[in-house]
Amino acid sequence: MRHALVSLVNIFALSLILITEFLSNFNLISNKSIQLFWIICLIFLIIYFLYYLRNNFFFGIKRVYKDLVQEKLIIFLISIILFITFLISLFYLPTTADAMSYHLTRVMVWAQNHNIDFFSTPDQRMLYMPPFSDFLNLHVYLVFKNVFFFNFIQWFSMLFSIVLVSLITKELGGSLKAQLFSSLFLATLPMGILQSTSTQTDYVVSFWFLSFLYFLLKYKKNTDFKNVFYLSISLGIGILSKQTMYFFCFPFIIFFYFIIKKENIKKTFFHFLISALILLLINIGHFKRTYDMYGNITAFHESNIKATNESLNPKYLTSNIIRNFSLNLTLPNKNFNQTLRDTIKSVHETLNISIADDKNTFGKDFFIYFNTYEGHAPNTLHFILIIILFIIPFFHKIYSNEIKAYIFSLILGFIIFSFIMKWQPTGNRFLLPFFSASSVLFGFILLNLKNKKIQILSVLLCFIWSLPYLFINKTRPLISYTYNDIVNIDLNFKPFLKTLENPEYFYSYHDGYKTDTYKEVSNLIFKRNCRYIGITRPAAEYEYPLRNFIMKKYKDDDVEIIYPFVRNLSKNLDKVNYQKLCAIVVLSCDETDINCTSTKNLIIPNNLKKITFKNGIILYI
């Protein structure tokens, strides 16, 4: 039953990508076309269930219930985490910085344009960043026509990832209890909990990484076309979700596809060719759009963010590995974290390298701390346990060579990641696929301890460690609002209760949202019945709330919000009708940045009057 679920998710995701690309070619992306696609998928699912799964489904439910009832504690703890994260996902609107700046913004532009073509924009991440998660967001937005379900994409990614971890454990020879231990380890992962209620993309790529591993292990046992097909889909969609998929998958492809495989070379090569073709089919649309824009499929360009290391010197690799470790070693103690920072700085002095060298650092400084924000949160307990889990199998003969190859591939993936990607304070979220796949080992090691008390204590320890991340999420709290290093905790239910009354309340917690001004601007635009609106802004700006407030004012979709006066490379795609502009919202930015719309370039129609707001926002209307 679990295998059928994962297979269906793969087929649905592939169909979603193909239909989105197809509809986009004819400018047919709309509420009706996307809703029709989902209706067809629902009909297919019902037919599949009635004719293929009905008997097996009920039999499987009975068998699963019989097996799981013996492990009530683990099931109960996993269920609590899933239930609480479900509630958070339901009640809170998206608040993630990247979502506010480009993820959800480009979704609304796609819906407005009826296609997923590149467009003129000051934030080129809307163009070149892998789009699969936002394809899902686009479908959710057009099907339900509201913004309350965006968080569920990551939540379902966590749910399906927990299922996949259990399946991978099973494929490696783990018993049902080992599968449950592994699932609990992933469910209690701090970064995973925080990501599951957000509009980030790291749990999405983690799901595809785990799906790839599962079908790769199945392919090792049975080299039929079905397993090649599904592992290829998983790899292709993972790449369409985030570039980090390359780093973590590569070692597994080498070890499991070529080295451990004992089949003849011709068959392996043929299967590899099929995989490459499926991968290309999935990504060709995005690859072509990126190549047409930047002259390469990686979007390398002087005006884009440079997140890869500029030097491949071994000392930079050492620096990145140490600092990536440090992201998962902080504790809720300010003095300890300061000591940790000082120690890492001393190590860098010994290496004769700056701790914030721009050749291997994304950001202006090195600073780590303990918090409960989905971009920074440490997995301290789980990281320490993973180090132990990686060591034990190499000193005990009971663990198979397959498990050892699995561990070695994970370590090599971590090294490749550190070798290619610049270190950044928010880099721990990029390691979620690594932590998710490492969860598999927890089940084997804990089960082989054969001491029930230690097993129960380990399970409870992981669960208790997860509680702060469940209840005091920095941007979506249930009982409190937290600060860096948890210096103090404002214990109260006000943020959550206020959010229940007004979902937009929590936007006011961050100055970047400019909530009051955005609402005032949208009111003025609506009063003038202006339906062709320009926004000028820097590359990273919390624009989504403004778009959302404007769109909510209009009951129909006959309104366009565009980016005039763009200066970066995407200006070649400018299709703005400047004579038609009836309102221009100007958000200030650093004019030395090519991605900033310079106020010197603004040619404002004479009939528009200037209104300046206290936080620097200007409205011409």
Question: Your description of this structure?
Answer:
The chain is mostly helical. Among the domains are: 314-372 and 381-451, no CATH class; 512-620. 59% of the residues lie in helices and 4% in strands. The chain is built from 22 helices and seven strands. It has helices at residues 2-25, 31-68, 72-91, 97-113, 125-128, 132-144, 152-171, 176-187, 190-195, 202-221, 225-241, 244-259, 265-294, 314-326, 334-351, 380-391, 401-420, 432-448, 452-471, 494-501, 515-527, 544-553, and strands at residues 480-482, 489-491, 532-536, 560-562, 583-586, 610-612, 618-620. Strands 4-3-5-7-6 form a five-stranded mixed sheet, with no helix packed on it. Strands 1-2 form a two-stranded antiparallel sheet. Helix 14 runs antiparallel to helix 15 (334-351). The radius of gyration is 25 Å and the shape is globular. The termini are far apart.
